[in-house]
Amino acid sequence: MASMGKQKSSSLDKSLSKGKPEVNAATYALLFSEIVQYCQNRVYTVPELQNKLAEMGQHVGSHLLDVLFLREKGFKREIKLLSMLIFIKSNFWKTVFGKEAEKLEQANDDERTYFIIEKEPLVNKYISVPKDKGSLNCAAFTAGMLEAVLNGANFPAKVTVHWHKGTCFMIKFDESVIARDKMIDSR
Amino acid sequence: MSRQTARGGDPRKVNGELFTLTYGALVAQLMKDYENDEEVNKQLEKMGYNIGVRIIEDFLARANSTRCNDFRDVAEQISKVAFKMYLGVTPVVSNWSPAADEFSLLLENNPLTDFVELPEGHDALIYSNILCGVLKGALEMIQMDVDVKFVQDQLKGDNITEIRLKFIKRLEDAVPVGED
């Protein structure tokens, strides 16, 4: 593990910064644009492109999880489904995207399914979708982040992205999550 | 949570950690997709170049800067205006060559490398090489051919991160290199 020769400093030796200076939105938009172009050059279809973006989003989400719980909650994890969702809608969204998510809804006919609705997610702000790729939603990247955060917090779920009232993230929890939640409730 | 309420809300700004991690995801993806570190470096520089070509427009539109008379002016603009504006840091300009055609940007805190440790066996990877591409692309759009490279990197155990810029020539009637 430790490297030989030159002294590389380990992240663990440094103290965790408290919140971060921000960067210009243009910088982020240009970086994200390069990411989308890069992914696009390596795939053939829109679903493949979205998968690729989601994969990269997962990388980001899984790294954000710990730092968020540490800073926002003093290392306390959420164990209830609803409080986890609210944590995502408010704390997570606010820290990462600068504001709370617009809406959190549950599907009428399915207790496993929830929606987070955001009219204009950060990553889509400067993206105009080409006509021949009407279904493409680059917020698949954000969906990937959400999925990694939920999975990392032990709420296994699938998160997909759809165009509905803006962008809609559909969160479909694993059966086990619902069962566990009911068990906690009944205690 | 209350700590967080102080900031946020400015639509012109993005959380720095999101930025850092997004860049990290990109580099990680490139490492998976390419055979060796040199290819990754090249790809990062290419992406940076594309960004630079576009960011210069934004810079000229917003920064209100006046025409630079010499390379020293250019250095000042890059560190005090451009880096500050886009990455929120101000590198120190130093190590001028006697002919004043070469200088270094010294970065104490590289915003791209928070949380980053290079894994073993990737000594050739220039993690932040995208910055070189950005600088090169942006300067090329204002008729300057400049060689940009990392000479020191904190990720590799150096005390400071140093980017060296060397002025090569003025481009006349610059035709942008076609995209591929």
TrEMBL record, chain A:
Q: Which GO terms describe its biological process?
A: vesicle-mediated transport
Compartment(s) of residence: Endoplasmic reticulum; Golgi apparatus, cis-Golgi network
Superkingdom of source: Eukaryota
Per UniProt, the keywords (alphabetical) are: Endoplasmic reticulum, ER-Golgi transport, Golgi apparatus, Transport
Q: Name one Pfam family in it.
A: TRAPP
Q: Which InterPro entries match?
A: NO_sig/Golgi_transp_ligand-bd (IPR024096), TRAPP-I_su5 (IPR016696), TRAPP_component (IPR007194)
Is Cytoplasm among the key words of this record? no
Main localization, broad class = endoplasmic reticulum
A single GO cellular-component term from the record reads:
Golgi apparatus
What role does it play? May play a role in vesicular transport from endoplasmic reticulum to Golgi.
Could you tell me which PANTHER family the record lists for this protein?
41-2 PROTEIN ANTIGEN-RELATED (PTHR20902), TRAFFICKING PROTEIN PARTICLE COMPLEX SUBUNIT 5 (PTHR20902:SF0)
Q: Assembly state and interactors?
A: Part of the multisubunit TRAPP (transport protein particle) complex.
Q: Which family does it belong to?
A: Belongs to the TRAPP small subunits family. BET3 subfamily.
Q: What protein name applies here?
A: Trafficking protein particle complex subunit 5
From TrEMBL, chain B:
Q: Which UniProt keywords apply?
A: Endoplasmic reticulum, ER-Golgi transport, Golgi apparatus, Lipoprotein, Palmitate, Transport
Which segments of the protein form a coiled coil according to its record? none
Q: What's the domain of life for this entry? A: Eukaryota
What CDD domains does the annotation carry?
A: TRAPPC3_bet3 (cd14942)
Tell me which Gene Ontology terms the entry assigns under biological process.
vesicle-mediated transport
Compartment annotation: Endoplasmic reticulum; Golgi apparatus, cis-Golgi network
Can you cite an annotated GO cellular component?
Golgi apparatus
Q: Which Gene3D superfamilies match?
A: Trafficking protein particle complex subunit 3 (3.30.1380.20)
InterPro entries per the UniProt record, alphabetical: Bet3, NO_sig/Golgi_transp_ligand-bd, TRAPP_component
So what does this one do? Answer: May play a role in vesicular transport from endoplasmic reticulum to Golgi.
Under PANTHER family, the record lists:
TRAFFICKING PROTEIN PARTICLE COMPLEX SUBUNIT 3
- Tell me its family: Belongs to the TRAPP small subunits family. BET3 subfamily.
Q: Note the subunit structure.
A: Homodimer.
The protein depicted here goes by the name: Trafficking protein particle complex subunit
